[in-house]
Design a protein that fits this description.
The protein has about 150 residues and is an alpha/beta fold. It contains 4 helices and 9 strands, in the order βββαβαβαββββα. The chain has one domain: Glutaredoxin, CATH 3.40.30.10. Strand 1 and strand 2 form a beta hairpin. The two termini are about 25 Å apart.
Length: about 150
């Protein structure tokens, strides 16, 4: 696992969204992007985070931000998650962990004494020129929209 910093150029990526369309960082040139990485669809923390961003979505749009979520889940799982919680933004299927690896958020984790490989919940705010404006590593899942809008 490596570490990106504020001011770094955001790594390019290409992954399928819930509609099976290929989405790339280049699609957001000239726009601001909230790119958030989360471990798994429809789990308590990930659902709280997605719903916080959903509820704050109008404020993000008003400030010129697009939002993309990324997890190792499949396109099919993303479709169910979006429909269940009425999420207004796309989720990218990163089954091969290429995007997570490019952003340095895939690596060793511990939970209840067990070690395993997984996604470190992290959010990157990317400016219109593709540079990383902010990195949030201590995500408040229930209040993530407010946490981001306060940055």
């Amino acid at each position: 696992m490596f570490h990106l910093n504020k001011g770094d150029q955001a790594p390019d990526f290409s992954a399928l969204n819930e509609k099976g369309e290929t989405v790339k960082l280049a699609d957001f040139r000239g726009k601001k992007l909230v790119l958030y990485f989360y471990p798994k669809d429809d789990t308590p923390g990930c659902t709280a985070e997605a719903c916080s961003l959903r509820d704050g979505y109008p404020k993000f749009i008003a400030q010129g931000y697009a939002i993309l979520g990324v997890s190792p889940d499949s396109v099919k799982k993303h479709v169910k998650f979006i429909e269940k919680y009425d999420l207004p933004f796309s989720l990218l299927a990163d089954e091969d962990k290429a995007v997570a690896n490019a952003y340095g958020v895939w690596g060793p984790k511990k939970f209840m004494g067990r070690s395993y490989e997984g996604v470190h919940r992290t959010t990157f705010v990317i400016d219109a020129s593709g540079k990383i404006e902010e990195i949030i590593e201590k995500v408040d899942t229930k209040n993530h929209a407010e946490q981001l809008l306060a940055v």
